[in-house]
Specification:
Layout lengths: L12 H16 L10 E6 L5 H12 L3 E5 L1 H4 L7 H11 L2 E5 L3 H10 L4 E3 L7 H15 L6 E5 L4 H13 L2 E5 L8 H14 L3 E4 L2 H5 L4 E4 L11 H7 L7 H4 L7 E3 L22 H20 L4
Parallel strand pairs: 1-2, 1-3, 3-4, 5-6, 5-8, 6-7, 8-9
Helix pairs in contact: 1-6, 1-12, 2-12, 4-5, 6-7, 6-12, 7-8
Length: about 300
């Protein structure tokens, strides 16, 4: 049976561990024939730098082929219905990585596709980002369980996936958001069930300083995501006290890692120069999108032994 990857929660703790270990191996070793003969369709409604380039290069370096389909070329549910697109692509390719405005579009794609569908970003989750973040943390800290991540800002798709990823793997998750911008309630409920099993904690704050205190990782993201441009001014006011800078990082552990999925808005959610601070692993995160997605594609496209 095909295995879709629409949410971090589609993988068990053991599967996440396996993908991280495989990513570390593929980062060190060339495997130019691993996905020979396989084709990936990149079906994107949103613009992209890291997601598109990392998936295309991942397929190329593993011996496969990727084809990019722009919004203008496909026009999901405008030029052609989502079910029809899924059924047609299933006849051509081995896997679909979709970057969509609505998570419902992904669910529809997966429901009508005969090949696996990967969530390359939706309004609900960004699971490929979260897994590559876990890879980066594991490389830097040598473990996941017991560490504490503090997310500062909007309870958005990245925050949703990180909450699930950390709770599944035994990491504590703190999030500080202003009123009205909290984490998704269903995601929170799901994460708390995982945290109960992994003996980790999820804590919600309005104070960034309280959330960051003694954290091992401090994470933030843009205040205004794609498709929210009309809210930009309102969000700047709401998040004014949620900027991550050296002062805020001083509340965390001395060896804290600073993380951001990019793109960043300098002098909004982060202070100028923070991406190049010694505490920052932001560009390691960006590189690890490539290695994690190699491992993810291999897991999904190759038969299990």
């Amino acid at each position: 049976m095909k295995k879709d990857f629409l949410s971090v929660s589609d993988f068990s703790p053991q599967e996440i561990k396996q993908v991280i270990e495989q990513a570390m191996t593929l980062k060190e070793e060339d495997s130019p024939h691993l996905l020979s003969g396989k084709t990936l369709a990149l079906l994107f409604e949103k613009p992209s730098l890291r997601t598109r380039v990392s998936f295309e290069i991942a397929m190329h370096q593993l011996g496969g082929y990727a084809i990019y389909l722009s919004p203008q070329e496909v026009g999901l549910d405008k030029r052609e219905s989502v079910p029809d697109v899924a059924k047609v692509l299933s006849r051509y390719v081995d896997c679909i990585a979709a970057r969509t405005f609505s998570h419902k579009t992904l669910i529809s794609l997966a429901g009508h596709s005969q090949v696996p569908v990967i969530n390359a970003l939706s309004d609900l989750e960004h699971p490929c980002q979260a897994l590559s973040d876990l890879l980066t943390i594991y490389e830097k800290k040598g473990r996941l369980a017991g560490l504490t991540m503090a997310f500062i800002g909007d309870g958005n798709n990245v925050a949703n996936s990180l909450l699930l990823a950390t709770s599944i793997t035994g990491m504590n998750f703190h999030i500080a958001s202003p009123s009205g911008y909290e984490i998704n309630r269903e995601i929170l409920s799901q994460g708390r069930k995982f945290a109960s099993s992994s003996r980790s904690r999820i804590e919600l704050f309005t104070s960034p300083e309280e959330a960051v205190t003694s954290a091992d990782i401090v994470y933030t993201d843009v205040w205004t995501s794609m498709g929210q441009d009309a809210e930009a001014d309102k969000r700047r006011l709401a998040f004014h006290d949620y900027k991550v800078d050296e002062r805020l990082l001083s509340f965390a552990r001395q060896d804290v890692l600073f993380m951001h999925p990019l793109p960043a808005h300098h002098d909004e959610e982060i202070s100028p120069g923070l991406l190049d601070d010694p505490k920052s692993v932001v560009f390691d995160q960006a590189e690890n999108r490539l290695h994690l997605q190699k491992a993810l594609l291999a897991k999904i496209l190759l038969p299990t032994k």
